[in-house]
């Protein structure tokens, strides 16, 4: 085995030398590319990650460019959390309608609770990421990823048109990105 590997070692070493030197000369503004690089890695590791949404949502946060991977995971979780908060407000508003169909009401109430619990989970996951408890963060974000589907399933089962489908699509997109980035942390 060893004799098979060793002839290629000098070549490998040259390759590494070449790559690291081209990195330092060509890629001067390395930190401005952390978003692109991270979204690329996420999209290739998880087919549910929408690369365009990943880049656009992270670039909408000015400090994301200066972040390291851990900081970027926090940014992504906070984007998902703020979207979860919006979805919760929408569910609350829909629940205010007069003479709401009781099935519709119960589905909306379920979604509102799911969103509410998920906001708390995502907040806890920020703390977990910041203290390098990535396994815990992963579990918390994973349950947030399931929320939009579970909410939609409620309407489907009653044969109702979901009034939250747009929000749930966005939520799925953003939570999946948060999970993929957090998974890169180990
Ligand atoms: C990915 O996200 C972009 C930006 O939000 C959106 O326009 C596009 O439709 C999404 N693509 C898929 C396949 O969902
Ligand atoms: C969050 O949701 C709102 C509406 O539900 C949407 O307009 C907005 O683009 C979403 N934010 C992100 C970062 O995708």
From TrEMBL:
<dbReference type="InterPro" id="IPR034088">
    <property type="entry name" value="Pla_a_1-like"/>
</dbReference>
<feature type="domain" description="Pectinesterase inhibitor">
    <location>
        <begin position="30"/>
        <end position="181"/>
    </location>
</feature>
<keyword id="KW-1015">Disulfide bond</keyword>
<dbReference type="Pfam" id="PF04043">
    <property type="entry name" value="PMEI"/>
</dbReference>
<dbReference type="InterPro" id="IPR035513">
    <property type="entry name" value="Invertase/methylesterase_inhib"/>
</dbReference>
<protein>
    <submittedName>
        <fullName>Invertase inhibitor</fullName>
    </submittedName>
</protein>
<keyword id="KW-0732">Signal</keyword>
<dbReference type="InterPro" id="IPR006501">
    <property type="entry name" value="Pectinesterase_inhib_dom"/>
</dbReference>
<feature type="signal peptide">
    <location>
        <begin position="1"/>
        <end position="22"/>
    </location>
</feature>
<comment type="similarity">
    <text>Belongs to the PMEI family.</text>
</comment>
<dbReference type="GO" id="GO:0004857">
    <property type="term" value="F:enzyme inhibitor activity"/>
</dbReference>
<dbReference type="GO" id="GO:0005576">
    <property type="term" value="C:extracellular region"/>
</dbReference>
């Amino acid at each position: 085995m060893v004799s098979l590997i060793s002839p290629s070692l000098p070549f490998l070493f040259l390759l590494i030398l070449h790559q690291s030197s081209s990195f330092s000369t060509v890629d001067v503004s390395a930190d401005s590319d952390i978003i692109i690089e991270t979204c690329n890695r996420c999209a290739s590791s998880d087919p549910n990650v929408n690369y365009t949404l990943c880049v656009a949502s992270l670039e909408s946060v000015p400090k994301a460019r200066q972040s390291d991977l851990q900081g970027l995971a926090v940014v992504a979780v906070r984007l998902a959390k703020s979207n979860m908060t919006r979805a919760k407000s929408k569910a609350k508003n829909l629940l205010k309608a007069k003479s709401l169909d009781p099935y519709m009401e119960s589905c909306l109430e379920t979604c509102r609770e799911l969103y509410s619990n998920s906001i708390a989970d995502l907040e806890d996951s920020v703390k977990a990421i910041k203290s390098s408890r990535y396994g815990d963060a992963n579990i918390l974000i994973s349950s947030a990823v399931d929320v939009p589907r579970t909410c939609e399933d409620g309407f489907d089962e009653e044969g109702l048109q979901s009034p939250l489908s747009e929000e749930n699509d966005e939520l799925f997109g953003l939570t999946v990105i948060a999970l993929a980035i957090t998974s890169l942390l180990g």
